[in-house]
Amino acid sequence: MSSLQGKTALVTGGTAGIGLAVARRFAAEGAHVFVTGRRQEALDAVAAELGDAVTTVRADSSELADLDTIAAAITDRGAGLDALFVNAGGGEFAALEDVTWEHFQQTFDRNVGGTVFTVQKVLPVLNQGSTIVLASSNIDVKGSPSFSVYAASKAAIRSFARSWAAEFVGRGIRVNSIAPGPIATPGLSGLAEDPEAERALLAGLADGVPQKRLGTPEEIADAVLFLSTDQSSYITGSQLYVDGGASQI
Questions:
Q1: Which residues are the active-site residues?
Q2: Euclidean distance between CA atoms 154 and 128, whole angstroms
Q3: pLDDT digits over 123-155, tens only?
Q4: In what order do the strands lie in the sheet with 54-58?
Q5: Interval 221-225 mean pLDDT
Q6: Which residues pair with 240 in a beta bridge?
Q7: For the segment 165-216, what is each residue's pLDDT rounded down to a tens digit?
Q8: Which of 127, 135, 162, 157 is closest to 13 using CA atoms?
């Protein structure tokens, strides 16, 4: 039997990259997956690919009304929620002297606010023994020039995983975070201004990994699945680094 057979999952930011890989993996393991995203055409593509295994919800995780819509959709299905992967977010480069209030606010609204209020809104529909995986980053323990605001937002997410693991233990809900290194996704490539800068960025990031390569979204999906099933039943409050050893070696 598949590890999520008959379960219900939610993947925010699930239309591309890591989120899409996790949605695919959850569906392959037997879950019915709610997938959120901001672009309807991308959601339509996910629905066409995964068929009856998915329910798509157009939502921006930084908008409270949209989060209410997600929670209502899960409630209406009537099966609660067994696995939550809070993935929606992102960031942009900005050296300290170039950081604006808008840059700071947008980054924290998307990454921190979106995480806090996504979990808050779906907490009533989380079933006993369910799992929460928060998307952090290995940059939370590393220094990275011109990426300080993003790094700080991911460090906050790591802290939430610890606190919520303690807060929800009485309900049997496990909370962990996952810390990817550089992963070959459209979001990573999109940090570069042009194709030449993209090649330089990706090559430089790969060179900084002990394994000398970028990770794949599917490798992150494997790790998220592990944290979302009984295979990790004695793990809560932890962070799993999936970064080719970049933060450890």
A1: 150
A2: 27
A3: 999 999 999 999 999 998 887 888 899 999 999
A4: 54-58, 32-37, 8-11, 81-86, 126-135, 174-180, 239-242
A5: 98
A6: 178
A7: 999 999 999 999 999 999 998 888 877 788 888 899 899 989 999 999 999 9
A8: 135
Given a cut of 80, whether residue 1 has pLDDT beyond it is no
- Mean of pLDDT over the chain: 95
* Paired tokens of 175: 């909370």
Distance (Å) of CA 91 to CA 20, 106, 148, 153, 213 = 18, 9, 10, 9, 22
Q: How far is CA 139 from the centre of its chain?
A: 15
Closest to 242 measured CA to CA, from 88, 138, 144 = 138
pLDDT of residue 36: 98
C-alpha dihedral over 23, 42, 121, 173, to 10 degrees? 10
Distance in angstroms (rounded) separating the CA atoms of residues 185 and 69: 28
pLDDT more than 90, % of the chain: 84
d(CA 98, CA 130): 42
Q: Which two tokens stand for residue 223?
A: 């790790």
